[in-house]
Amino acid sequence: MSKTVKIIVYFLVFDVVILGFYFGIKSIAKSSGKSPMDDYEWKMMDASYQPTDFVEQFIKDDAAQKNIFPVEIRNFKQSPDVLKRFVGKNFARSSVSNLDLVFPGLDDWALIQIKYKNDKEQVIDRVVLYVSIKGQWRVGDSGTLM
Questions:
Q1: What is each CA distance from 102 to 88, 107, 145, in whole angstroms?
Q2: Do 78 and 50 sit in the same domain of this protein?
Q3: 51, 57 in Cβ contact below 8 A?
Q4: What is the mean pLDDT of the chain?
Q5: Neighbour count for residue 131 (Cβ, 10 Å)
Q6: Residues 1 and 63 reside in one and the same domain
Q7: Long-range contacts of range 95-102, CB-CB < 8 Å, 24 or more positions apart?
Q8: Do 87 and 18 share a structural domain?
Q9: 16 and 84 share one domain
Q10: What is the pLDDT of residues 87-124, one digit of tens each?
Q11: Which end of the chain has fewer CB within 10 Å, C or N?
């Protein structure tokens, strides 16, 4: 082999080793990190459940009206990390500042994951963004978490 070919082969082998090291470290760092949703536990909501806030009371009243108990919920409250993973009809991986722009007069917001079975025994799993504008709570968007 000529000297030029040896230099090119050594260079390519060196590049492969460096790239392997880089992607290996990146993979280890990514797998050890946990999801921001892992910090929140599922709560089982039935007719005797005591809501902790207005939004949970709204969900309980709605479930009682539609007769879909039991309902499982995960209340993410105002977690900006979870909001960045939320993909809905109007928002996709948004930030809190985007909520302020879209909902003028925004007082408060909460992100809640709801899971229940419908009449056909299908599991419905959705994430709902509730917003409070001038003291009135309403659904701002619904979708899923990525």
A1: 14, 13, 20
A2: yes
A3: yes
A4: 87
A5: 19
A6: no
A7: 99/131, 99/140, 102/140
A8: no
A9: no
A10: 999 888 888 888 888 888 889 999 999 999 888 889 98
A11: N
Same domain, 7 and 26: yes
DSSP the chain: --HHHHHHHHHHHHHHHHHHHHHHHHHHHHHHS--GGGGS--EEE-TT---SSHHHHHHHHHHHHHT---EEEEEEET-HHHHTTEEESS-BS--HHHHHHHSTTEEEEEEEEEEEE-TT-PEEEEEEEEEEETTEEEEEEEEEE-
| Tokens standing for residue 73 | 């919920």
Query: 109 with 76: CB under 8 angstroms?
Result: no
Same domain, yes or no: 59 and 89: yes
The residue behind tokens 């797998």 is 31
Residues facing 126 on adjacent strands? 114
Give CA–CA dist 97/87, Å, rounded: 16
The structure's pTM equals 0.72
Residue with tokens 């994951």: 113
Give the count of domains, the chain.
2
Residue range of the domain that includes 24: 1-33
